Amino acid sequence: MEQFTFCQLHTIELVLKPEGDERNWPSVITFENLLDRILGFKDELDMVIAKKLDSSYRASALAAYENMGMHKARSTMGMMTRFETVLPGYYGTKGAAIIQEHLAALYLHQDKLGRDVIAPQTAMEYLQQVLIPEVGFRLIREDLMNRDSRKRHEADIDDQAKRIMAESAAYGSSLHPVDWNDAISADEDSDDTNDGNDAGDFYGNIDDHIEQTEIL
């Protein structure tokens, strides 16, 4: 265990942090202001839910169901094969768990994710596989534009943000792993979401997967 921890810290300090610095990925995140930032995206998120705005993440999830089969795609290992598409990049699994908590309060606990919207996904699957990455790439897009205002006028800014989100997923999860104090289950008030995919279990499994594949 000590050897594993040493190897993990060694990789973070000597490999991941230098890569992040080189690629301009932030290593310090202000998680406390995520709710305000999410509220700034709410109109667009509402349009995604109403199917008035296309979601590449929804399309990816449905494609996985079709290609892998519903049962396999929903399994832990099925999700691990596409963790980069559901994590908010350099915000890490800690960021994902916090985003999930806020989105659950905004949508899940307000009964705004009806079967007509989410089928064939469950409410929790839709939250984790569609809404969280939709928030994630918007956070990164906002970061890009805040660093360089000229980015606002670039036609491919969404694609840039989505690419960074996928490429920085392992980096973010290594630097910002899920914190059990943040991993409040989003399914406390909803029987429909009681599928074992609470934030702690779900993102903890992803952290374990990343450690095994990226660190060792």
UniProtKB/TrEMBL annotation:
Organism from which the protein derives: Absidia repens
Protein name per the record: Restriction of telomere capping protein 4
Annotated family: Belongs to the RTC4 family.
Keyword Cytoplasm in annotation: yes
Organism superkingdom: Eukaryota
Disordered as annotated region, ranges: 181-203
Stored InterPro entries: RTC4, RTC4_C
Record keyword Nucleus present: yes
UniProt main location, coarse: cytoplasm
Keywords linked to the UniProt accession: Cytoplasm, Nucleus
Function text: May be involved in a process influencing telomere capping.
Compartmental location: Cytoplasm; Nucleus
